[in-house]
Amino acid sequence: MPFDLILRGGRVVDPSQKLDAVTDVAFAGGKVAAIGSGLKADPATEVRDVSQLIVTPGLIDLHTHVYWGGTSLGIDAEEFCRLSGVTTAVDTGSAGPGNFAGFRKHVIEPSQVRILAYLHVSHAGIFGFSHRIMVGESEELRLMNPIEAAKVADANRDLIVGIKVRVGLHSSGTSGVVPLDIALEVANEVGMPLMAHIDHPPPSYEEVLARLRPGDVLTHAFRPFPNTPATAQGTVKKAVLDARERGVLFDIGHGKGSFAFKTARAMLANGFYPDTISSDIHQLCIDGPAFDQVTTMSKFLCMGMELSDVVAASTVNAAMALRRPELGSLKPGCVGDATLISIRQGQFDYEDVVGEHLIGNSKIASEGVVIGGRWWHPN
């Protein structure tokens, strides 16, 4: 099969293959077709010289809110992904069983960007989240809809990758772990992983971790105090180490209130890297402090993580969390998505959610996107 597109001469960083080398990547029929030097182009093959850029598998943002127009926190997935180098946006609970059909028909299906979803166990998902209204959907237990959630998740397995629940003072009031237990019942019923949001107690970080199963995701994992994974002495809490040991995954989910440099420095100093880096992008953080996926990745690069580890946390690790091994890799036969980035040098001001600033000397910038084996952005 002739190649549709060849990315020529870029530095290919693909942690799924432990690959970091200058080479070509070719696409055909919507998939990765070949990797190697001097790949031959046919007359109809589009060839892009990317010799000044880094080629990674298509970035996966494991925590986004892209039910644009259906919820007040939703942003436009295509616009966001063009700027952030994201080829797969995973919506985490914007919709519940009562409104997922609209999300699917009006946003997901027309989108050029792949959108997958964690389905909220609450009937209408995260419906009361804006600059003026803050209503924790998990606080009202009458909105928990496990029976319909199981039905909707089972009927939409092509798009729904797991079950979402938000617990904490701001999202579940004094309901504690009750919404989490209800969501876990649904996840067990449909055989899917769960993603749990955590904010201020109750419940505690430890109470939430104790319930999570191998493959479940704790998002907002590097939160500021309270409900932080680090101790006052700068060590990692035993409950966190025990949870990782049994297979619980730790996701960043930066957002408006869920990432602190102080926490991240402590965790990284102890060798505890996040499994996945995600932006938790929504209307209240797209203009800061999160901004986008590559800015969130840049913060970890500036805090000392190697580029390959940062890329892994936004590609292959995320694909494994989603149980979609065809994503997050440039192995031949995988989905033909790729992201082109550059590493800019200079002085860059990064901010976390508690107002601390970090002046970093590097910034990851999105320079282009390939989706389904075709050059997508910029035109």
UniProtKB/TrEMBL annotation:
Where does the entry annotate site (Transition state stabilizer)? 166
GO: which molecular function terms? Answer: deacetylase activity; hydrolase activity, acting on carbon-nitrogen (but not peptide) bonds; metal ion binding
Residues forming the Amidohydrolase-related domain are 54-210, 263-343
Does this entry carry the keyword Hydrolase?
yes
Q: Which InterPro entries match?
A: Amidohydro-rel, Deacetylase_Atu3266-like, Metal-dep_hydrolase_composite, Metal_Hydrolase
Keyword tags? Hydrolase, Metal-binding, Zinc
Keyword Nucleotide-binding tagged = no
Q: Tell me the residue numbers annotated for binding Zn(2+) 2.
A: 164, 197, 220
- The PTM N6-carboxylysine maps to 164
The record, for PANTHER family, names: DIHYDROOROTASE-RELATED, IMIDAZOLONEPROPIONASE AND RELATED AMIDOHYDROLASES
The protein in question is named Amidohydrolase/deacetylase family metallohydrolase
Please give the organism. Answer: Bradyrhizobium niftali
Q: What is the lineage of its organism?
A: Bacteria, Pseudomonadati, Pseudomonadota, Alphaproteobacteria, Hyphomicrobiales
